[in-house]
Amino acid sequence: MAILNVGLVQMTCSADKTENLNKAVEKVKEAADKGAQIVCLQELFTSLYFCDVEDYKHFELAESIPGPSSDLLSKIAKEKNIVIIASLFEKRAEGLYHNTTAVIDADGTYLGKYRKMHIPDDPAYYEKFYFTPGDLGYKVFKTKYAAIGVLICWDQWYPEAARITALMGAEILFYPTAIGWAASQDEATNTEQYNAWQTIQRSHAVANGVHVVSVNRTGYEQDGAMKFWGGSFVANPFGSVIYKAPHDKEEVAVVNIDTKKTDQYRTHWPFLRDRRIDSYQPITKRYIDEE
C-alpha cells in the first residue's frame, strides 16, 4: 500500500498507570476514527517519565511483553483494523528490564518487539539504572499496511540505527520519544535543542529516502522541573516537515503519506546506489586513534 494515514498520539501523563493506559486507548480510537491505519504512541506512555531519578520502586511499573497492556491494545487494533506501535517498560525476567516497543498488526496479532539499543545516562535521564541495552538488533515489522522500522528516543540521534533499519526494508521510521526542556532553561537554548532534535531526524529521512514519524510526550513533569516539548512531527523522504504538533498541548493527528515517494527520491538522489560499503569498516571502532 502506497497511500497511508499515520496517526500520532501526543499526550500528557499522570502518576496513575491505569489512567494513562485508558487515556491512550481513547486517543488511539480517536486516531482510528479520523482514518489512521498505523498509530504510534509516545515513549513509556503508561507512566510519567520516571527515569529522572534512580528509585527502585519504579521497577514495579514494568510488565511482560506480550502482557496486560499489549493484550488490551491488541483488542483495539483488531476492533479498529489498525496497526499500533506501543512503547512499554518491559520486565523480561527477575532483575532484567528493557525499554521496549511492541508492534501489533491490524488483526490484533502481536508481531514482535524492538528493545531500545542506545541507553542514555544524563541528568534527569538516568535510563542506564533501569534498562538493559537491547539485544534483538534492529527490526522491521511487516504489517498489513507497510513494512515499518521502530527505534526509540535516544536511538534517534544515531544515523547508523536509521541506516541499518532502512537497509532492512523499512518504508517508514517511527520514533516513540520522551524528551523535554529543563523548566529553568532560557528560550534560546530550548529552541536550539528542539531544532537539533528535529534536524537529526529529518536527516535520517533524507539519507535513507523514507518518511520519519517522531512522537513525543508533552506537559510538565518532575514537579514542574521538566517540560516535555511535544513538537511531534512527520518528515517526508527529503526531510520536509509535513506535520508538526504544538509544544504545549495534547494532540491526536492523522497525516497522509505516500510511501511511493521513496522510489522517486532514491532514484533522483541515489545515496544508496553510491554508498562505498567497502570503505566503512572503521565505523565499527569506538574512536579512530592515530596509529
What key attributes describe this structure?
single chain; about 290 residues; alpha/beta; six-stranded mixed sheet; 15 strands
What does this structure look like?
With 291 residues, the chain is α/β, with parallel strands linked by helices. The protein has one domain (3-268): Carbon-nitrogen hydrolase (Nitrilase/N-carbamoyl-D-aminoacid amidohydrolase). It has five helices and 15 strands. The strands form three sheets. The protein has a six-stranded mixed β-sheet. Helix 1 links the parallel strand 1 (3-10) and strand 2. Helix 1 runs parallel beside helix 2 and helix 3 (159-167) runs parallel beside helix 4.
Indicate the topology.
Elements: E1 3-10, H1 17-33, E2 38-41, H2 68-80, E3 83-93, E4 96-104, E5 110-115, E6 140-142, E7 147-150, H3 159-167, E8 172-177, E9 180-182, H4 187-208, E10 211-216, E11 218-221, E12 226-229, E13 233-235, E14 241-244, E15 251-258, H5 261-268
Parallel strand pairs: 1-2, 2-3, 7-8, 8-10
Antiparallel strand pairs: 1-15, 3-4, 4-5, 6-7, 9-12, 10-13, 11-12, 13-14
Helix pairs in contact: 1-2, 3-4
Task: Describe the structure concisely.
This protein has 5 helices and 15 strands. The chain has 291 residues and is of the alpha/beta class.
Task: Report the order of strands and helices.
Answer: EHEHEEEEEHEEHEEEEEEH
Question: How large is the radius of gyration?
Answer: 18 Å
Please write the CATH class name.
Alpha Beta
What structural class do helix, strand and pairing data support?
alpha/beta
Let me know the number of strands. Answer: 15
Largest β sheet strand count, sense and barrel closure: 6 strands, mixed
Compute the separation of the termini in Å. Answer: 51 Å
What best-fitting shape do the alpha-carbon axes yield? Answer: globular
Helical region count? Answer: 5
CATH topology descriptor: Nitrilase/N-carbamoyl-D-aminoacid amidohydrolase
CATH H-level superfamily: Carbon-nitrogen hydrolase
What strand line-up does the widest sheet have? 5-4-3-2-1-15
User: Helical proportion?
Assistant: 10-25%
Percent of residues in β-strands: 25-35%
Arithmetic mean pLDDT: 97
Query: How many domain regions?
Result: 1
Going by CATH, the architecture would be: 4-Layer Sandwich
Which runs of at least 5 residues are low in confidence (pLDDT < 50)? none
